[in-house]
Specification:
The strands form two sheets. A five-stranded antiparallel sheet has the order 1-2-3-4-5. The protein has a two-stranded antiparallel ribbon with strand order 6-7. 25% of the residues lie in helices and 15% in strands. It has helices at residues 38-44, 107-115, 122-129, 137-140, 148-160; strands spanning 24-25, 32-36, 58-61, 68-72, 78-80, 98-100, 105-106. The protein folds into two domains: 20-83, N-terminal domain of TfIIb; 98-160, Arc Repressor Mutant, subunit A (Orthogonal Bundle), CATH 1.10.10. α2 packs across α5 (148-160). Bound molecules: zinc ion. Zinc ion binds next to loops.
Length: 161
Amino acid sequence: MSNNTGCSCCGDIVDLTMTTEDMNKCPICNQEGKKVKNITVKHLVKEEYVESVETMNYSICMNEDCDTVYFSENKGIQFSKEQVKVPIWFKKDADPRYACYCSEVTINQVKEAVRDKGARKMKDVLAITGAMKNSKCEIKNPLGVCCHETIQTAIDEALAE
Ligand SMILES: [Zn+2]
């Protein structure tokens, strides 16, 4: 993965390629989830649930139709869409759909930058929308990772329209 993404958070990027060992199945829908750091879960569940976050690894359910967001390694604790502070952009009915949670830039704003303001590349979009400034992805993004892939996907989709 390239560090040359134009964002302020990818300096110490970790390899996010996952092995099957890292895969965890959602206890509700049985689809594979992605591992998420404990600190990310702690910051993203609503205030009243922070204390029930255990000191173990969590995964996030990537199924757009499933209401479960985070589930723990031992599958004892789960947090649903209603129990997290922000809409999860890839879940059904998320509103708003943030691409960049740190700067609160939505996928629509990214697409508008491409459609209406002539942005063609990542750096154009960042300049127009202000995305990826003051990145705190670990505690702001529901996956705990930089949003550049999400933004790139939105750019690609808008260009293809
Ligand atoms: Zn699920």
